[in-house]
Write a structure and sequence with these properties.
Aquaporin-like, single chain, about 0% strand, transmembrane, mainly alpha, Glycerol uptake facilitator protein, about 280 residues
Length: about 280
């Protein structure tokens, strides 16, 4: 199955969508964070608006190809809740990190003053310690990823709510909340690209562990406690590597698990006969 997926055109379209989407996102956010010549450092408003608008645009451009995840933390949350397989998760994360490095590098080459590249990097303020910044990153990422999962659940029910706008607002809210305390990264790739370009690695682990912990907590808590299809059986199915879709269908339709399983097996047998 993995070999057939790698050979498919859709797989590579999704991979390049993540690469290009992360490149655009990182370059937009960094561009909004850098002050012009002779200007004072910008506040959190510019990057907050930039990231929200960029996410809405990228969701429209690449949403149907890869989901426009453009964030390793979100990808790992989807993997932890069994919404994404291991192969795609690893390829997406590699593409996201490469796209972030290319975006940061391209913007660095365009800077009139290379010293302003220090504004690229997420830093822990001197008034705070790494543990406090870690907590802020967990909180910011939690609310952002929880919003993403909630929007996806509403889309499954064909809800006409403009979900991309809600996701964009959640990104902006995270930056407004965390900018003064940790930089409001919420995205390990967004922190990795500038760190490589600027060569600044102090407390870099905060911007991996914080977003990843917050994202996984948000995904797990939504899918197994707050979602309409949440149930103990669904959690057990995830932990035991069983088919979650069957449990979700049974929970949503009110049918018994055995009935849904039999219907799924009949559908698979019918599709095999049609292929033959």
């Amino acid at each position: 199955m993995a070999w057939h997926e790698i050979r498919s055109r859709q797989f590579w379209r999704a991979m390049f969508s993540e690469l290009l989407g992360t490149l655009v996102l990182v370059s937009v956010v960094l561009g909004a964070s850098v002050p012009g010549p002779g200007e004072a450092p910008v506040g959190p408003l510019y990057p907050a608006v930039a990231v929200g608008v960029a996410i809405v645009a990228l969701a429209h451009c690449f949403g149907e190809m890869s989901g426009a995840q453009v964030n390793p933390a979100l990808t790992l949350a989807l993997l932890a809740t069994r919404r994404l397989d291991v192969l795609r998760a690893l390829v997406y994360i590699a593409a996201q990190c490469l796209g972030a490095c290319l975006g940061a590098g391209a913007l660095y080459l365009a800077l009139p003053l290379k010293t302003t590249a220090e504004h690229f990097v997420n830093k822990v303020p001197m008034q705070l310690n790494a543990a406090q910044a870690l907590g802020v990153e967990v909180l910011c990422t939690f609310q952002m990823v929880f919003t993403v999962f909630s929007v996806e659940e509403q889309r499954r029910r064909e809800n006409p709510e403009p979900g991309n706008l809600a996701i964009g607002f959640a990104h902006s809210a995270g930056v407004l909340l965390g900018a003064r305390f940790s930089g409001g990264s919420m995205n390990p790739a967004r922190s990795l690209g500038p760190a490589i370009v600027a060569g600044f690695w102090e407390n870099h682990w905060v911007y991996w562990f914080g977003p990843v912990i917050g994202a996984i907590l948000a995904g797990v808590s939504h899918d197994f406690f707050f979602a309409r299809s949440a149930s103990r059986q669904k959690l057990v199915a995830c932990l035991s590597c069983k088919d979650i879709e069957i449990v979700e269908t049974a929970s949503m339709t009110g049918s018994s698990l055995s009935t849904v399983t039999q219907n799924a097996m009949r559908a698979k047998q019918g599709s095999k006969q049609d292929n033959n």
